[in-house]
Amino acid sequence: MKFTYFRNPKDYAGLLPGKHSCDLCGYNDKCFEGESFYGENIVDAICWKCLKNGRLEEANIFANDADVESLFDQMLQLNPDIPKDQLLAEAKAKINEIEFRTPPILSWQDWKFPAMDGDFCEFVSFTSKQELNELAPDGDGKQFLIEHLRVDEDNLINPEIVWYQLSDNKINNIEQTNHDCLCYLFQSRVSKKYLIIWDLI
Length: 201
Ligand SMILES: [Zn+2]
What we know:
This protein folds into 3 domains: 9-62, no CATH class; 68-99, no CATH class; 115-200, no CATH class. Helix 4 runs antiparallel to helix 5 and helix 6 packs across helix 7. It has 8 helices and 11 strands. The longest helix has 17 residues, at 84-100. 32% of the residues lie in helices and 18% in strands. Bound molecules: zinc ion. Zinc ion binds next to helix 2.
């Protein structure tokens, strides 16, 4: 079960236990929880093969909301010599992958699947102090958080508060998440830079 923009679906995606009947193909297989998807049709379960094969598109069901605007701005900036039509086609393929072929990410607020360096990021994990300490070259996870936390102009976030609320220990699977506050670790597929997004109820 491999997805371009979601590193570890087995542990971090909302999978139903055991096998279920998929709303799209009818087969019994490993399925994602239907409530994570949105769009015209309400579904109970979507199997990983249907997601992988892009069958959501024909059913008008979405898995993730992609940050289309940032992606295209970055692509334009990075490729000033490539014709706009060509860039649009490339952007469309990437957006399609996020919206229809990537497992939905559990979240509370409506933030968009982030883009960096002209591509969408890969979702790595629900992160923790332990994980950020390990990622920081000098072991200072708090400083790493301050440097990589996404701060939107209209959404002022205090990294001190985020650090305080982060789980001490590694979150090895979706069951171990603290459901009031989630911190998402993403990585650029191009520069390998990290991006952290904070979300709470
Ligand atoms: Zn299916």
